[in-house]
What we know:
The complex is a heterodimer of chains A (about 230) and B (about 170). By secondary structure, chain A is mainly beta. Helix content of chain A is about 5%, strand content about 25%. In chain A, the strands form three sheets. In chain A, strands 2, 5, 10, 11 and 12 form a five-stranded mixed β-sheet that branches. In chain A, strand 8 (about 155-160) and strand 9 (about 170-175) form a beta hairpin. In chain B, the strands form two sheets. In chain B, strands 1, 2, 3, 4, 5, 8, 9, 10, 11 and 12 form a ten-stranded mixed β-sheet that branches. Chain B has a two-stranded antiparallel ribbon with strand order 6-7. With about 170 residues, chain B is an all-beta fold. Chain B is built from one helix and 13 strands. In chain B, about 45% of the residues are buried. Chain B is about 5% helix and about 35% strand. The radius of gyration of chain B is 16 Å and the shape is globular. The interface between A and B is large, with 76 and 68 residues.
Amino acid sequence: MTGPLPVRRPPPGVHPPLHYAPYRATEVRHPRERLVIVPQTLTELTGPVFGHDAVRPLDHDLTRQHRGEPLGERIIIEGQVRDEDGRPVPNTLVEVWQANAAGRYLHKGDRHGAPLDPNFSGAGRALTDATGRYRFVTIRPGAYPWQNHPNAWRPAHVHFSLFGECFATRLVTQMYFPGDPLLALDPIYNSIPDERGRQRLIAAFDLGLTEPEHALGFRFDLVLRGRQSTPMTG
Amino acid sequence: MSDLTPSQTVGPFFAVLVDFPPHGPTPAQPATAGAPLVTIWGIVRDGAGDPVPDALLEPWHPGLGEVVRAPTGDTGRFEFTAPRPGPTPGPGGTTQAPHFALGVLARGLLHRLVTRIYFDGEPRNAADPILALVPEGRRGTLVATADGSDRYRFDMVLQGRNETVFLDV
């Protein structure tokens, strides 16, 4: 029986290590045992198929989910999801969540003293089109303090969740903004070993995506694991 | 170097995701009408023995192409209900015992952990090609124990004694 092609394993240094002391929460949460390397089976190489009814028409627009408009700087985030061979990943679910313009999440666990915005929930979802492209309209999130170390502040970011073609291509990451002085101080961002890898999480300001009199545009492309070319190599 | 997008932690504030359909709170909608359901619950603990109250578990049903989202609560407890998986083809003509693939996301996890949930009392476990790669003394961490009819318990330990086996897929 010929099954789906396996996906390539990420080279070392692409993803952060599970133990990264400057990010304190990793101390008691990283496994000490080595991960057990296993072959990819049908389990890892198949995944959810998303129907178009999985996403409602306004789910991608976080500024239009309430009666009024949220406060803050309106932005557009647009990008393409590809695999390592440059092939677009169509019809895959992209989910985002973020703090509001004041740096506050709509979440019972967020104790930051910044105000909530009754017109902003901070969650959106979209399916990529036939060319792997997605688009969100939102507001620029604020930086916020956290308890990792004295005077710790997270740089402004938007959380991204992607599925890709199968269980093995699933990716959860964060998008950052260019020129943010907090990036150099952030243990989560700096847990990525490779400087080029870190740069790939910074969206690019794009005047072409910017809509006059309406919103600044940012481009954020994502690359998921690609399939091996033959079942037995690699 | 690859162009792969690096992983980052899911953080503690993902609850908005769980509220979205179709990956809403449990129980999952069975993809096949009348398929027998199974419920799995358990407690997730960290290396200090404390419950992990902000993990997001994503069990995937092999074959159905369904994913469920099961967040842990204040006591580290999660629970989900999904169609009961059957045996599936494995590599080299083998048969995989019934299992869920499980993705684990949490604050403090810089990338997703992956494990599997097998079922206690399932005779096909003995010939499962993936379980066979796990050191025998640790296999038990991947096997849910019966807790009533169509109900199983699967506790997880992220670090330390009885640490759950995590897989590199």
